[in-house]
Amino acid sequence: MRLRIITPLVVVVDEDINSLSAEDDSGRFGILGRHAPFLTALAVSIVSWRTTDAERFCALRGGVMTVGKASTIDIATREAVTGDDLATLDSDVLAQFRSDADDERTQHVEAMRLQFNAIRHMVSRLNAGANAGEFR
To answer: What residues contact residue 42 under an 8 Å CB cut-off, 6+ apart?
Structure first.
């Protein structure tokens, strides 16, 4: 099988592998050779794979994984960090990715709150103008 992990700026991994383990919202799963075509959204997690002589790891900031008919596995992600030390990736990198995702969610909620307040204010001004007879 061929594994490619791609971010918007760089191809992080492009190598032949024997097996892969990844995680989506339903849990952890594995991919072996001749797997059926498959598409899933990956969680912020660590993907691991085996080659003939090593096991490797990559921390992902979410993403999309496709398994093609020709035994190709493509992972598109916003950010990826490879490493051979699972403990370091898990404790440092993955924790940072999760923190960043939480911060982005908080910022998104705050932006939505500001937009709703602005809309509410505009609607109240329009209603006040309509009640005063300005808009006929």
So the answer is: 22, 23, 24, 60, 62, 63, 64, 65, 75, 77
Task: Please give the model's pTM, rounded to 2 decimal places.
Answer: 0.70
Q: Report how far residue 102's alpha carbon sits from residue 112's, in angstroms, rounded to the nearest whole number.
A: 15
| Contact yes or no for 9/45 (Cβ under 8 A) | no
Model confidence over 50-74: pLDDT tens digits? 999 999 999 998 899 999 988 899 9
Q: Given this structure, which CATH class describes domain 2-86? A: mainly beta
Burial class (CB in 10 A: 0-12, 13-18, 19+), 70: exposed
Angstrom distance (rounded) from CA 75 to CA 19: 14
